[in-house]
Amino acid sequence: MDLRVFQENDQPLANTFFTQCLPESGRVFEPAGRHASLTRLAETFSEGRCWCLFERGELVGTVAVRPLTLTDKKTGSACSRSCELKILYLRQTFHGKGYGSLLLTTALSYAQDCGYHSMYLDTIRSGSGAEVLYRKYGFREIPRYNNNPHADLFMVKDLAVSS
To answer: Among 4-8, 9-13, 50-54, 75-79, which is the least confidently predicted range?
Structure first.
């Protein structure tokens, strides 16, 4: 297993990965539509970081972190010490091997090292273990924080609290 920061030359492998992985989780990869950002990961996560997990040369998992600016509802001011967990995907044949935890803890460590106070995520509720994994690492469900029409589960983790 090899976990490393995404490199521009990984993009063709990533495109193939998303084509295979997203349907496994009940999604359809739409590279010309809502998933266009996944076809240019270097640009999409230029202000954050994206990682790829390889097993015997095959891309089997991804995860990314990017800054997230939210508006404080009480004061109306922007809160910029938050980040967002994105594209934590893992091929189904690699579930149950601790790879999801590896991807998530890598993202959490990076976010803490960057000084973020909280990490948000949005996802779809499904029969997969994603929600269980997020809860195991201290994420809690919150009301919708963005306008992603495809997500139905929104969570946050206080990064000052160790898991």
So the answer is: 75-79
